Amino acid sequence: MQDSTARQTAEEIVEEFSFFDDWADRYQHLIDQGRRLAPMDAALQTEENQLKGCQSVVYFSSDTDKEGRVHFSAASDAAIVQGLIALLLRVYSVRTPQEILALSPDFLEKIGLDKHLSPTRKNGLASMVEAIRRTAEQTLKAG
């Protein structure tokens, strides 16, 4: 079980990014986050798990543990997207559906990503957030 809440983790990420003055350093930090992400099981990298709406290839999968927490795994062929995935998983994975749905992804705006990503990357990021929220809603309904 994680020690911090999703909100605390999101605030930690905002604080991490605030240490960098320029966007080259922020992008490098984002890429480093992606490199440290545990690899997604190759068996889950199927067309069925490919997220639509992303310019690069993104695989996205989830399962729920006995305590009702949702575990996400994801992977991308693009370094920056892999970094975005790493941030999202840090915040939303291994959380209850209620905790996932209660936390707005506004931490991404606080970092400044909304102003520094290309429109296609923003669409892909929105697709990933949507998939996370949809999974949490479906998990709640399946109860």
Question: Strand order within the widest sheet?
Answer: 1-2
Annotation, overall tally of beta strands: 2
CA-based shape = globular
CATH architecture: Alpha-Beta Complex
Q: What's the structural domain tally?
A: 1
CATH class: Alpha Beta
Give the terminus-to-terminus CA distance.
20 Å
Main β-sheet description: 2 strands, antiparallel
Helix-residue proportion: 55-70%
Beta fraction of the residues?
A: 5-15%
Q: For the CA atoms, what is the radius of gyration?
A: 14 Å
SSE series: HHEEHHHHH
- Average pLDDT, to the nearest integer? 92
Low-confidence stretches: none
Question: Helical stretch count?
Answer: 7
Named CATH topology: Sufe protein. Chain: A
Structural class: mainly alpha
Question: What report would you give on this structure?
Answer:
This protein has a single domain, classed as Alpha-Beta Complex (Sufe protein. Chain: A). The chain is globular, with a radius of gyration of 14 Å. The chain has helices at residues 6-18, 23-36, 79-92, 97-102, 107-111, 113-116, 119-142, and strands at residues 58-64, 70-76. The chain has a two-stranded antiparallel ribbon. The mean pLDDT is 92. A hairpin with a 5-residue loop joins strand 1 and strand 2 (70-76). With 143 residues, it is mainly alpha-helical.
